[in-house]
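To: structure subgroup
Subject: Chain for Friday's discussion

All,

I'm putting the inputs and outputs inline so they're searchable in the archive.
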Amino acid sequence: MFGMSSDVSHYRAEEENILTSFTQRLIELAALAGAGGAGTFATSALNMLHLPAIALDRRGYVVDVNAAADMIFDDYVKIKDKRLFLRDPEARAILKASLDALTNPANLKSLLAEPIIVQRRDKLPVILRIWFFEGPNHAPEQDVQALVTLNALGPKPGPPAAILAKTFQLTAPEAKLACIIARGAPLPIAAQELKISREAARNQLKSIFAKTYTHRQSELVALLLQVE
């Protein structure tokens, strides 16, 4: 009951679907907001949600990068000579083909097909998606033609322990455990990180379940991730 179950994986998949739908809607709203400022509008809005994004012009040059994207950049994914550079040869070839299509408006609808997976040595991959702007205000000469969103796989920071404690009336130790659980860490790893026994972690988790009116770890994660 206390390990990460398939329910958590299902929740992550549902979260990804929701995020994809939300991002698409945001792109549509950004396009309607105005041609030149659509990219910065979208990247700024996504940054407020801690979602990495890069705005590109019709030649594939980087127009805007939000702070969340800056935190992801490394030797495998970075901005080089005002262009998005991917060290992974296969991902780089797919990106080039996609960006080449930016110069031909007739090919834009094929851009959104599949995500680009960037493999990294000693790190989990980064998933890139390209979203193109279209709508009543879109024109081929528009400064911003597409938005690239990035998802660096791996543990994400959990909600602040202090906020969790106040929201659910948790003790300080319970809040610290909840923060780690919210990252998707299994209970044994959380216990190890907190330097407590597994039995102590189980008892704290039982108390957290009671205070949050949840019964499974997947339900708890889904609830905790709503806390900002």
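Points worth raising on Friday:
The chain has a mean pLDDT of 80.
Residues 27 and 133 are 7 Å apart (CA to CA).

D.
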